[in-house]
């Protein structure tokens, strides 16, 4: 019987020292030890770069409809440096694929405000048409249930109307 904790213990020694502190250097990735002060110097530069990348990405993901998160708050710093600088910038899945996946998760969790924000950004970025957004909700209803999906109808239509109004204003 393999438990998750057994698996974690088995693989715990396979990460290079300092891996969680900074991005691995080529030597560290190859399993070589690096000096800790080297990590501290690179960490400051890497965090600043990751924050800048995160800020650019969050503005892109939300089509400019975002308030820049303040620096110095752990929640927003980690969100920018990990979620936006690391995950949203990966190119294995397209931005549209990520958005569709996210919309399904948000709808299933019953988060209408976040659903509206994501639909509006998707429409403004040209990732989906209003018809595709409506079809997506119909599909989600089959898996998340009609009560959850029904709670997303008004936010969906509001997002469609707001995105259209924003488009006409420009």
Question: Would you give an account of this structure?
Answer:
The chain contains eight helices and no strands. It has 170 residues and is an all-alpha fold. It has two domains: 35-90, no CATH class; 93-170, AhpD-like, CATH 1.20.1290. Mean pLDDT is 81; it is low at 4-42. It holds the Pfam family CMD. Residues 1-48 are annotated as: Disordered.
How many β-strand stretches?
0
Radius of gyration: 20 Å
Mean pLDDT: 81
User: What CATH architecture label of the largest domain applies?
Assistant: Up-down Bundle
Describe this protein with a few key phrases.
2 domains; globular; 8 helices; 71% helix; AhpD-like; 170 residues; mainly alpha
Summarize the structure.
71% of the residues lie in helices and 0% in strands. It is mostly helical.
Helices and strands, with pairings:
Layout: H1 4-12, H2 26-29, H3 36-61, H4 74-87, H5 95-109, H6 112-124, H7 130-144, H8 146-169
Helix pairs in contact: 3-4, 5-6, 5-7, 6-8, 7-8
InterPro entries: 4CMD/NDH-1_regulator, AhpD-like, CMD-like
Domain Carboxymuconolactone decarboxylase-like: 80-158
Organism: Parahaliea maris
């Amino acid at each position: 019987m393999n438990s998750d904790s057994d698996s974690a213990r088995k693989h715990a020694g396979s990460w290079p020292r300092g891996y969680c502190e900074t991005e691995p250097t080529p030597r560290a990735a190859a399993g070589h030890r690096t000096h800790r002060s080297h990590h501290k110097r690179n960490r400051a530069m890497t965090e600043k770069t990751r924050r800048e990348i995160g800020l650019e990405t969050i503005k892109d993901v939300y089509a400019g409809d975002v308030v820049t998160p303040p620096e110095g708050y752990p929640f927003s710093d980690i969100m920018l440096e990990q979620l936006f600088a690391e995950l949203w910038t990966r190119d294995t899945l397209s931005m549209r694929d990520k958005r569709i996946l996210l919309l399904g998760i948000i709808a299933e969790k019953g988060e209408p405000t976040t659903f509206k924000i994501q639909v509006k950004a998707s429409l403004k970025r040209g990732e989906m048409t209003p018809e595709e957004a409506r079809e997506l909700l119909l599909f989600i209803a089959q898996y998340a249930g009609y009560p959850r999906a029904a709670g997303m109808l008004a936010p969906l239509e509001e997002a469609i109307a707001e995105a259209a109004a924003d488009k006409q204003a420009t």
